[in-house]
Write a structure and sequence with these properties.
12 helices, alpha+beta, 44% helix, six-stranded mixed beta sheet, 317 residues, 6 strands
């Protein structure tokens, strides 16, 4: 096509920048919402897959606020999943712990979930009923207004406010104490790994608080303590006993950022076989949560996952 004045070919029009799919744009938020609601990487990914299918089944031109629509969709899908999951957990073998998220150390500050995705917090959230958990996550973690949450859940804003107040009070009463000093946490972590690798009972006991408790989630699939262990002597001897077993000979402990906190993972070659998170108070470890259920380690990934749908989102389920 020629320019009428110069007779020369007119420059090609600038290509329009392709619009970003709102689902892809907000995937981190959607994953965070589902994971906070369910404490499960695998379930959160399933929810995102269902949400993606629903999103691409509607006339998107008629959706005035795509982000709100997607959050509402994920929230309600997670509520349905959580209701059924709670019934399953009543028959769970041994202590139930959430699935770990292993986060690249340089990504902790980037994720909106860093301060609220700790294993300790997810365990506390398990004590809320599904609606309380949804309101708490949407309000306290992601900062939605009572009116917005009411729109997501089809409830009046005043009702949401009451639910939020009740949930927040419940969480505050059960949230464990912890030290926020990164240097102290790194020092304790290094000493913990050295004591475990060296089989040093006294050194390990010195790191444990007098009221230390250990929860071990094997899900009935692998050998694990089916009841919480209490006290430095009992906990330390159990940990070193596990490390001394022939089956543990190839396990090496490494530091890793798990659920936003410096923690320890157990590796055999390139395979993850355990994730150990803990609370530190006054320089000592108070609560230890040891996840060894292989079904909960298969889905370990960086927080927020990859951009866009999961690999099988477009296929049949």
């Amino acid at each position: 096509m020629k320019d009428r004045e110069t007779g020369r070919a007119a420059p090609a029009p600038e290509p329009r920048e392709a619009a970003i799919d709102p689902f892809v744009e907000h995937r981190r938020l959607l994953f965070g919402t589902a994971y906070h609601m369910l404490g499960s990487v695998a379930d959160a990914e399933d929810i995102l897959q269902d949400a993606w299918l629903k999103w691409h089944a509607v006339d998107q031109d008629l959706v005035e606020h795509p982000k709100a629509y997607l959050v509402r969709t994920v929230t309600n899908l997670a509520l349905n999943r959580l209701t059924s999951a709670r019934a399953v957990r009543e028959t769970y073998v041994g202590p139930w712990l959430p699935e770990p998220l292993i986060t690249p150390s340089n990504a902790v500050e980037e994720t909106e979930m860093a301060e609220t995705v700790s294993t300790a917090m997810l365990v506390v959230l398990e004590s809320l009923n599904p609606t309380e958990r949804a309101v708490f996550v949407l309000r306290e973690v992601f900062g939605y207004s009572y009116a917005e949450i009411g729109g997501f859940l089809d409830r009046p804003a005043a009702t949401v406010r009451q639910i939020s107040r009740r949930a927040r009070s419940h969480v505050q009463a059960r949230r464990p104490r912890f030290d926020a000093d990164d240097g102290a946490r790194q020092e304790v972590t290094e000493k913990f790994m050295a004591a475990c690798h060296g089989g040093d009972l006294n050194a390990l006991m010195e790191l444990l608080a007098p009221e230390v408790t250990l929860w071990n989630d094997g899900g009935g699939i692998v050998t694990a303590a089916r009841r919480p262990l209490h006290g430095p002597d009992h906990v330390a001897r159990w940990i070193l006993g596990v490390m001394a077993k022939p089956v543990s000979a190839d396990i090496r402990l490494e530091p890793a950022v798990v659920n936003g906190e410096l923690s320890v993972v157990g590796m055999v070659g390139d395979d993850l076989v355990g994730a150990l998170t803990y609370d530190i108070h006054d320089g000592r470890i108070e609560n230890i949560r040891f996840q060894v259920n292989p079904q909960k380690l298969n889905g370990v990934q960086a927080a927020g996952g990859t951009d866009g749908p999961t690999s099988n989102t477009k296929g049949s389920r």
